[in-house]
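Lecture 7 notes: from sequence to structure.
We start with the chain below.
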Amino acid sequence: MAAQKHTQTRVAFATIVGTSIEWYDYFLYAAASGLIFNELFFGPLGSTLSTMVAFATVGISFLFRPLGAFLAGHFGDKLGRRVVLIITLIAMGAATALIGFLPTFETAGVLAPILLIALRIVQGISAGGEWGGAVLLAVEHADEKSRGLRGSFPQIGVSIGLLLSSGVLALMTSIAPGDAFLEWGWRVPFFLSIVLVFVGYWIRRGVEESPVFHEIAERKEQVTNPLGKLIKSHWLLVILASLVFMGNNAAGYMTTGGYIQNYATDPTGPIGLERGPVLWAVAASAVSWLVFTIIAGAVSDRIGRRNTYILGWILLFAGIFSLFPLVNTGSVGMLLLGLVVLTIGLGFTYGQQPAMYAELFPSSVRFSGVSVSYAIGSILGGAFAPTIAKGLVSSTGTTASVAVYLGVVAVLALAATLLLRDRTGIPLGPDHEDEQSVSPIIGIGSPQLTSDDGDRHHPADTRSYMN
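Predicted C-alpha cells for the same chain:
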C-alpha cells in the first residue's frame, strides 16, 4: 500500500510538472498574440484586423490538435502512455523556444508570420497528444475512490501554465518597459522554455508506465487499429464527450486565448489598462482556477462526475454573465473579481474531466478516445473563441454579445452532459473490457452492468462501482 501511494504521488508530481510546462508554452503564445504578435508580425494589416488575424493563428493550432490526438492515441494504445508524453514535451518546448528567435515582419517581411504560424502548428500537434497521456497516467494509477482527485492533478497544469506565462510576461514588462518589451523583452519567456523542457524530460523519464497498459501489453491485447475501432464503435460517444468539453474550453479561452488581456489593454478600446496589472490579474485568477479544479475532482469522487458537471455548468453561467460587466468598470480589482468568479465554474467543469473521460471509454481504445474527444472539443470550443469574441464586439459594439455566445455554447455542453450516464468508479482494467464497452449514452445500449461480485448495477447510480 505504501509503495502504491509513493508511485501515485510520483506520477501526480510528474504529470503536474509536465502539463504545466506544456501549457506554459501553449498559453505564452496565446497571450503574446494579442499583446505582441499583432503588432510585430501582422502590424501592416491595421489595428483591428491584425489582432483578429493574430487570434486566428491561436485557433489554427487547434485544427492540428486532432492530428496530434490521432497519432498519440494510436501509439499510446499500442506502445504506452509514457513514451508519447516525452515526445510531446520535447516537440512543444522546441517550437516555443524557436518562436523566441524569429525575426519580425519589419526584418523578414511575410516570411516572419509564415514561420510563426508553422511553429504554432507544431504546438497544436503536441498539445493534441499531450493531454490524453498525462490524464491516463494519473487516472489509471489511482484507486477507484480517488480517481477524480488524482485525475485533477494534470488538469491544474492548465492554471499553472496560465499563471507562469502571465507572470513571466508581467515580470518582463517591468524589466523591459515600453519599447524595450517589444524589442527584446517578449522573447525571454520563450527562451525560458529550453530550461523547462529539460526539467520536464528529466522528471517524466522516471515515471512508471500505466498499470492498465502493462496488463494489456502482457496479454498482447493491444488493438492493431485503435483509432479505427474507436470511430466504428464509439463515434457518437466521441461527439458527446467533445461537446461536454466545448463549453468549458470556449469560456476558458477568454483568458488562456488572450482575449481579455487584449480587450482590457487596447489603447483604442473602452478600458485602456496597462499591460502589467492586467497580466498580474490574469495570473492571480489562475490560482483560483487551480484551487477549484482540485476541489471539483475531489467532489466528483463523492457525488459523481455527472452531478459535479451539472453544478459546474450552473456556476459557469454565473461567471460568464458577470465577467464583462465587471471588466467594463475599468478597475483592475473588478477585472480580477470577474476572472475569479469565472474560474469557479471553469474549475468545476474541468477537474473531473479526466476521470469521466477515462470511465467512458474501453481500455483498448481509451487513449484514442480521450485524446480525440479532447481535441475535437477544443476546436468546437476554444479554437476561435477569441477571434469570434473580437468580431462580435466589433460588429455589435457590446460585450453582451460575447456573453450570449459563451452562454449558448455552455447550454449545448450541459445538454451533452445530461445525455451521458454516470460511470463513476467503473473498473478500468482489460478484465472489464466488455463491461466498459456498454454504451454510457442514455437510451442506447443496456444500462445494466455487472460488477466483480456478480451484482447488477445501473450506471446512473453514481456510487454503483465504488464498493
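Points to note: The first strand starts at residue 449 and ends at 450. Confidence is low (pLDDT under 50) at residues 447-467.
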